[in-house]
Amino acid sequence: MEIRLQQLLPNPLTDRDTSDSAIWRKEVVWQSGQLTHVHAPSGTGKTSLTHMLYGLRHDYQGAITYDGRDVAQFDLRTWCGLRKDHISIVFQDLRLLPNYTAAENIQLNAELQDSVPRSAWESYAAELGITHQLAQPLHQLSQGERQRVAIVRALAQQFDWLIMDEPFSHLDENNRSKAATLITHICEERAAGLVVLQLNEDHYFPYHQTFRL
Fold this sequence. Notes:
Elements: E1 3-10, E2 27-30, E3 35-39, H1 46-53, E4 60-66, E5 69-70, H2 76-85, E6 87-90, H3 102-112, H4 118-127, H5 143-155, E7 161-165, H6 173-190, E8 193-198, E9 209-212
Parallel strand pairs: 3-8, 3-9, 6-7, 7-8
Antiparallel strand pairs: 1-2, 1-4, 4-5
Helix pairs in contact: 3-5, 4-5
């Protein structure tokens, strides 16, 4: 699935100089199978772009198209279908359910989407070192453990694109490396595209391209 950004700009940034941006007010094309890094210093609209790609924000100029279809024309049913079968996401604020266990957070999402087998996502959890945390209520986990739960939840569904907003901010070097290796392997296995949006530079993924927001 091709993602194309055409002269895109969030309304809150219309009065700001965006000439240094490689995305805002530019023509950008991302293809499935590409690993893309968006380096986004604070205040440049990183989370806004994340939400726009996922259909949660519509206050922008320009256009976002998926396989040539303008997402501004999508109704809720179309967005639900995209999120079910084609687009998975890790939000910066994670959006997990604190009173559910880690496993329930993953399984609930998996039941709503076109999911992989439970044995598969349990193996992802094992690779990220959170097997023993799966039975615990989320509110008892550290922020780093919660981030790994959110990553497993995103990987537990099928997707053509995985979008991640600051997915490693609470992980140490070792766990970042493990998570990046797992994510890269799954994206390659599924011929899926990856978009990672971060404040800082990133050497964990073998990116095909990097954009400064």
